[in-house]
Structures are given as C-alpha cells and as structure tokens.
Amino acid sequence: MGLFQLAIRNALRHRLRTLLTVLGLAVATMACGLINTVIEAWYASADASSSTRLITRSAISFTHPLPITQAPQIRSVPGVSGLTWLTWFGGIHGDNRQPFTKLAVDANSYFDLYPEYQLSDAQRRAFQQDRQGAVIGPKLAASLGLKIGDTLPIRGDKYPGAWAFTVRGIYQPRDHKADDALMLVHWKLLSETLKARLGSGVPDVVGVYVVGVDDPALVPAVSARIDALFQDSAAGTKTQSERAYQLSIVAMSHNVLLWLRIVSMGLVVISLLVLTNAITMSASERLREYATLKALGFSPAYVATLLLCESMVIACLAVLAGIALTYPASALFVSSVGSLVDGFTVSPGTLRMQASIALVVGLLAAAIPAWRMSRVNVAQALGSVRA
C-alpha cells in the first residue's frame, strides 16, 4: 500500500472527527475567500479607473458641491480634452432590497468621457431628448426585469419626492471591470426640478467634474492648473487622477478593511489550531503503530511524512469544500447588498489564496506531532501501551 493511500485510510479511521474537522476548516476557508473577495470588490472601482481621466471635487469635502459656472473655465485649461460632470442622485427603488448606484449626469458629454459604457447612437439620442429618460446597466435591467420604454420609479431621499424615469437605453460594459448596474439620469432634470421647488435663485451645482486628457503624462500639470484657477475662490477645488480619487474614497473605510484582514488572519489561526488538535489526537492514538513501524526498520522521515500526508489529506478536502462553498456564499452576499459592490466575483487570486492557506495550515498543523512521532522511543512507546 502506498504512502498516500495509507494516509487516506488513517484520515478516515475516525470519520466523525475527520468530518467535523473538514467542516470547520471548510467554513474558515470559505470565510477567508469571501472576505478577500469583499476587499477586492472594494478596490474594483480604483482598478477600473482610467489613466486619462481626472476628478475635480470640492477642496472642502467629498460631499460639498461645486458651481456649474466653473465648467467653462475648466474646459479652457490647456491639456483638457473633454469635460463632463455628475451628481450623486440617490433614492430608493421599491423596498430597497436591490440597492444600486444612481447618478445624475450631463447627457451630452458623459458617454464621451466614459467609453467603457457602450450605448448605441439611437439609444443615446433617445436619452438626450427625454428629460425623464434613464440609461441603466444590463445587470440592473435583468435583476429588475426592465426593458426599453419601461418606467422605473424612484423614491427620493437626498432629493425628496416621487421620481419616475423611462428607460431609454441599456448600455453594454466594454469589459468585466466596468460597472454593469448603474442608473444614469439627467442632471438638467435635477437642476430644473430643484429650481421649480426652491426658487429660480437656487444655484446650479454638481458633485464632481470629470476631466479628460489625451496623455496620462499631463495629469499632474493639468491638475495643478485647474486648482490654481480656483485657489482664491470660495469654491476651491482638488483635482486628482481618477484612481487616486477612488483610492481616497476607499481610504475612508481603512478601519473596516483593516478589521476584515484581522478577522481573516484570525480564521487562519483558528484553522491551524483545529487541524493541529485533530492531528495530535490521531498521532497519540496510533503511538504504538508508529513505534512498530520504526521497530520494523522504517525511517523517522517515513513516520513523519505519513503524518504530514494525513494532515494534507484533511486540509485538501477542507479547501475543496471551502472553495465550493465560497461561490454560493458570494451569491448570497451579492443578493443582500444588491449592486452597491462593483466587480464582486471570486477571482483566481482568491482561489490561489485559499489553496495556499490549506497548504500552509496542513504543513504547520502536522509539523510538531510529526517531529515528535519521528523521535519516539520504540521501547518506551510499546512499553507504555502494554502498561
């Protein structure tokens, strides 16, 4: 009988203990994979950012608006090849069980700056011509059962009231990095509605400006020129690359991400302790067998390798079960948060991480028991069993 076959038989001697050990390790492996996927999704927007787009926001805070009167000045800055703007619209659809991102954008310029959201010319014209129109992503359309011409009601929170939009377009993401669940509405509709409700004296404001440049090398210079325009203004600006802007938003959740990583490492430690306990018990129960193997001439290395193989068998079974559980766990997580988390997919890197955890835990858990069994004194071991 080969070493691997013998390790499998040893692992299955106490099937209930092995099953409980595998189950515990599988849950820990699944949780590590899910946490890693959440962290990756948190950075997805930064990874999908363009090197030729800048974000100009208020120097006061992320949420402070900027006046639309700054647009012509920004557009005139040398090196600027395109300009659009957007505002977080917010709002709730239905019972809010499927939250998704809603943005008020400039319909005439938004898609020029965001070519990753591909929209047919006919749908783009229909959107531009209808103030009540909306463009949505294919994932959102599928989850809500919407098609071109359907009405999408939104209950306002940031901008109170009952809003009703007609779906005029369903864009197609250029690649898997692009958000496929956005809802885009007219910034002009938002501006006109606020003026109608609050008076014509309400200034037109935007959340951020999105600035296009032809060459990524121009980013520092163009950023400095834009901010210099408004440095003495009450509406000062901070311009940065799109990636830096997205990472600055992620940085606001630094403590959350830190604790997620701590929890993940804690799960690895727990997995190690669980498997170490199981292997130690297994080794203690078979002390006489290991002593007999040494008495028959098997080397200490063979005895240690046998125990290491048994540990690796359990670890491999656990990681396979853990990876299998990661996919339904991820689907359950997505169904609970809707489309608020972009790019939530289990990546090959996550699978490699889970496999690495199994390898490391399997080896470390058996290291001390294997070393002890390789050094067991044959006479004492057999004598203690007889006694």
Q: Between the first and last Cα atoms, what is the distance in angstroms?
A: 31 Å
Number of helices: 15
Low-confidence stretches are: none
What is the percent of helical residues? 55-70%
What is the radius of gyration? 30 Å
Q: Report the portion of residues in β strands.
A: 15-25%
DSSP strand count: 13
Q: How many domains is the backbone divided into?
A: 2
| Oligomeric state of this protein | single chain
- Arithmetic mean of pLDDT: 85
In this structure, how is the largest beta sheet organized?
A: 9 strands, mixed
Q: Structural class of the secondary elements?
A: alpha+beta
Q: How would you describe the shape?
A: elongated
* Strand order, sheet with most strands: 7-8-6-10-4-3-12-1-13
Question: What is the compact description of this entry?
Answer:
By secondary structure, this protein is of the alpha+beta class. It is 55% helix and 16% strand.
Summary keywords:
two-stranded antiparallel ribbon; 16% strand; alpha+beta; 387 residues; nine-stranded mixed sheet; single chain; 2 domains
Describe what this molecule looks like in 3D.
It is a single chain. α1 crosses α13. The mean pLDDT is 85. The strands form three sheets. The protein has a nine-stranded mixed beta sheet. The protein has 387 residues and is an alpha+beta fold. It has two domains: 3-44 and 254-386, no CATH class; 60-235, no CATH class. It contains 15 helices and 13 strands.
